[in-house]
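Recall the central idea of this unit: under ordinary conditions, the amino acid sequence of a chain determines the structure it adopts. In this exercise we apply that idea directly, starting from the sequence alone.
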Amino acid sequence: MVFSFVAKMLTTATILYSALSACTAPNPRQVRNGHGTLSAPSSGSIVSQGSSFPFEFQDSNWCEDGYSAITVWLTNYAPTTSSLNSTGQFPEGEYSWYYGEYLIPNFGLPVLSGSTPPPSSLVLPESLNLSPGDEAYLAVVETGTNCPPGLNIPPQYELTDLVMTVG
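Accordingly, the structure predicted from this sequence is:
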């Protein structure tokens, strides 16, 4: 009798777990509403093509990772999270310039061997078809993986951006 009761409880628990797992199956692309902070350049800064401008990004590190992956882009429109594809990238033709992927060490950790930390400045390329007075948007996508740990959640993306004026 006890065995039958335990078997029924385990069966019920298994059914409930399966039902809940199906209801909360992760989306292949998850976008978070929070975001990091672009401290430099200042929004509205005037930047000439071919010149460098300061770059400073403070990640939100919502996953509390030892290292935060970011990608840095330039667009000619105000980007939104719907601008990103399923891998957290801007699709080809939807961005003006790709600065690259960087890894931010958190909690005082050293730079990870083989990785590139964010630079302290970037250059507005001369090769872009921009005129003085045009707006260019600096966009940073922060990627969180396996957050929260152990739940097999697909990567999550946050977008931070600011506008610059071409001088």
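The mean pLDDT is 83.
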